Amino acid sequence: MFNRIMKQLSKLGKAMLIPIAATPVAGLLARLSAADLLNLPVLENAAWVVFGMMDLLFAVGAVIAYAKAKDKAIPIIGAVISLSVFKSVLTFMNETINMGVFAGIVVGVMTAIVYNYSKEWKTPQMFSFFTGEKFVVTLAPLVAVPLGIAFSYIWVPCQAGLNSFGIWIAGAGALGVFVFGLTNRLLIPIGLHHVVNTYIYYELGSFVTASGEVVKGEIPRFLAGDPTAGLFLAMFFIPMMFGLPGACAVIAKTAKEKKKAETKSLMTSGALTSFVAGITEPVEFSFMFVAPRLYAFHAILTGAAGAILYLLDVHLGMSINFCIIDFVLNFNMGTNAWIIIPVGIVFFFIYYFGFKFMIEKFDLKTPGREDDFIIEEDISEEELNIKLESSNYQYMAKKLLQNVGGKENIEEVESCVTRLRLELKDGALVNEVNIKKTGAKGIVKLSDTSIQIIIGTEVNKVAKEFKEMLED
């Protein structure tokens, strides 16, 4: 079960690299165009639009990961409409609910499931225009209504519990700071970090300004000149300015040779965005799902940085985000802020060597280290010229299914130009000898549960029969 969950998260992580590609430049523009720098409000507003769409980006990523189709355009349209319906229902039922990016994940997965099942449904001829692959555009928004109603009740205790958790953290000293940093990172994948953040950032403590105004929360108090504020904020400068750039460096270093240039480009962009703008999503989402161990390590280090800075009495806050620009601008308002630099340098190397050890020890599939899947350009001329001895595709599909353990053993089935690609529950059930007797020319084992059966250019016809047998 654990391996199956990790496999599904890995698929989501790979798919998220596509929509997340939009975030680095948006993060840089948002920070550079802010009022304290270039002061270009039009450009700043446009840049922050991207981060207001994070739930939509996650919905698109989930559809890309789980919809079983070569062309994902139609299920993506279904997800876009369904997400709007889902959020509208949530607001109608309870306007205080904010599910963040988790709403996108829920709706994207739901849309993919609806698409995978409904595309083969048979309906009366008069409704044929709306059915088939287009059926998801009608069905998914309808499913989003009861789903939204359900989550309007499910999410209330989750949100309330996290808010109470934030109140406990505020009074727990160095332990509280550690737990805050840890949970802040761990909750990002499901978009609930903002619930804990809200209390710490905008409710914790109070300070009376020279004009008599009372301000509450770590961020407003720090900006108002409260010398006691910033203990819960200083930690984030460590991973943003030092830790994640170290992670980016080693991810690029450990990439496969033929993917080094592409990975270096991706990681350089992510590191620069984290350092200059304090936007970490492009880096974190690149390994969050494909290598959860690394993300857990990152979360622990964030909390550890917070506890260390708390014990060293380091206070520093931010006006826009935790980045080099805010570090410089707010430096004189902080207490012992210079300590962030030597501690940060140490954490750079902890991230670098810690990530390197785990990536190599566990062969983690970080960007640039993904398994190679056959694509059209890799297929030999000989494989393209394979011809089956029989055109009885149904019989061949039947025999293939029998010799890979039956439909109960099938996790996923796809086809490329010449190969039937299967993800199995138990690879030991594969009978290679009998598979070759069906007319297949060979088997490629990518892992214990992932195989490719070489059939030739007629593979799509065999795959069609194979999929129909799975649905019977």
UniProtKB/TrEMBL annotation:
CDD domains xref list: PTS_IIB_glc
Localisation: Cell membrane
Domain called PTS EIIC type-1: residue spans: 3-371
Annotated transmembrane regions: 45-66, 73-90, 96-115, 135-155, 167-187, 199-217, 229-252, 294-312, 337-355
Protein name listed in UniProt: PTS system N-acetylglucosamine-specific IIB component (Glc family) /PTS system N-acetylglucosamine-specific IIC component (Glc family)
UniProt domain PTS EIIB type-1: residue ranges: 394-472
Gene3D superfamilies, sorted: Glucose permease domain IIB
GO molecular function: kinase activity; protein-N(PI)-phosphohistidine-sugar phosphotransferase activity; protein-phosphocysteine-sugar phosphotransferase activity
Top-level taxon of the source organism: Bacteria
GO cellular component, one term: plasma membrane
Residue ranges of coiled coil: none
GO terms classed as biological process: N-acetylglucosamine transport; phosphoenolpyruvate-dependent sugar phosphotransferase system
PANTHER family recorded: CYTOCHROME C-TYPE SYNTHESIS PROTEIN AND PTS TRANSMEMBRANE COMPONENT (PTHR30009), PTS SYSTEM N-ACETYLGLUCOSAMINE-SPECIFIC EIICBA COMPONENT (PTHR30009:SF4)
Catalytic residues (positions): 416
Keyword ATP-binding in record: no
Bilayer topology: Multi-pass membrane protein
Signal peptide: none
Keywords on record: Cell membrane, Kinase, Membrane, Phosphotransferase system, Sugar transport, Transferase, Transmembrane, Transmembrane helix, Transport
